[in-house]
Structure to design on (500 residues):
């Protein structure tokens, strides 16, 4: 599986992806799932992928091939949503070609983020069917892959006013919690920092043996254990008491 | 869906279940999923259910019917694992009878906890196929239903040395996080407190409008927001920087 997430903040965009892939528990590997395309000074695209690895590779190759040609490509689109539809069309096409042998297992889901000059930076989720949605205004983040474990924390912590550095630590703690709970998600972790109107991405990696991840885990665990003490206890007045469903002699 | 969890602590056992059931988003109802059987002074059983509601009802009726008869029942088993196998056999039998019309949708999963005199209190997870596992020694809890959202927190917080009251607030915060993230889980919440060797359960309910849940959410949210500030930021030395996959003029 995979866990990728992206956030849309006032300051810009933040992207984070794990790198673990697996075809069975005994066939685990490391692949990058965060890809960066900068086909002009007026545009930058980040593509994060979950789902069939072969499909995502074929889509990435087609995008790159498209940029070398003269037809429609990420270099020619006028809007971010057109880029999402372009990626969606490629993705649905690849999955359809392999459907005969793979069925629904050939599909992939993408987060496409970035900016085309003339419109705001944004993040979009591209479904396997080729259509897309944007992140909501109230919860300005998107997730693909193993999204459930880290979602409650994002719901609480992510808001558009957070800075990129704060967003990075929120994203990393969501990622580390997910990796603890699910073997199919693991380091190294790829991060993308995009400041709006910059058309350049700081694309960085944190390795699994990074002292940062230890510092983060220690701080997170300390904070969680402190929570156990600080949360209120249930008092007798808070509850209604029931009789058993079936009791001896009743 | 459903979210039920149980913990095995030095002091005894803690059970918690939500009460929401749904057959589609427009057919939501409230049913108890925590059931208590005390068929003798030497035994107490708590049964929590997830999966097909009709199957769980049929299993509960068969258990109750069995207690009124003279054959095998929860009143006759000598060990908790025998009770798990008994429930598993009933459950697999009911699911099989409805398989023709419902396929795999007829199955149910149970947590069976409690104590039979002569052996320690314990919790067991009964699979739809009728077999069972116990909770592990290292992570002495079990979950059924929508388990992913609240698991990371339990992994950190639950240990056998926690008292029942501490366990209750850990369980409730896992439950509240899950309900926030997933519409199919909701209040009221049923709690069971079992002190070992007591053969009696304190079975209590917390309503959705309980001031306790407000106090818990406020304390939880405050602790989480404090975590955002306390977690360490990513420093330049923590990361390796990449070039884009495709860059203008490259």
């Amino acid at each position: 599986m995979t866990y990728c997430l992206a956030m849309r903040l006032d300051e810009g965009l933040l992207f984070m992806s794990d790198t673990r892939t697996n075809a069975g528990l005994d066939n685990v590997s490391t692949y990058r799932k965060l890809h960066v395309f900068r086909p002009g000074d007026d545009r930058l695209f980040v593509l994060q992928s979950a789902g069939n690895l072969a499909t995502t590779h074929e889509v990435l190759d087609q995008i790159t091939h498209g940029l070398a040609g003269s037809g429609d490509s990420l270099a020619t689109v006028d809007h971010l949503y057109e880029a999402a539809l372009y990626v969606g069309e490629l993705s649905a096409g690849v999955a359809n070609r392999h459907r005969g042998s793979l069925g629904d297992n050939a599909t992939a889901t993408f987060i496409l983020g970035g900016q085309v000059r003339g419109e705001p930076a944004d993040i979009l989720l591209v479904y396997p069917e080729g259509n897309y949605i944007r992140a909501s205004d109230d919860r300005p983040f998107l997730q693909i892959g193993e999204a459930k474990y880290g979602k409650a924390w994002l719901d609480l912590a992510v808001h558009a006013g957070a800075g990129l550095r704060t967003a990075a630590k929120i994203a990393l703690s969501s990622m580390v919690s997910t990796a603890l709970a699910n073997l199919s998600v693991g380091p190294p972790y790829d991060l993308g920092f995009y400041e709006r109107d910059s058309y350049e991405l700081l694309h960085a990696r944190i390795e699994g043996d990074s002292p940062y991840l230890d510092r983060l885990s220690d701080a997170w665990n300390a904070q969680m254990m402190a929570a156990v003490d600080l949360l209120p206890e249930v008092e007798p007045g808070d509850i209604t008491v029931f009789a058993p469903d079936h009791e001896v002699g009743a």
Summary: Helices of chain B lie at 53-68, 80-97, 99-102, 151-157, 164-181, 211-230. The domain at 3-238 of chain B is CATH 3.60.20.10 (Glutamine Phosphoribosylpyrophosphate, subunit 1, domain 1).
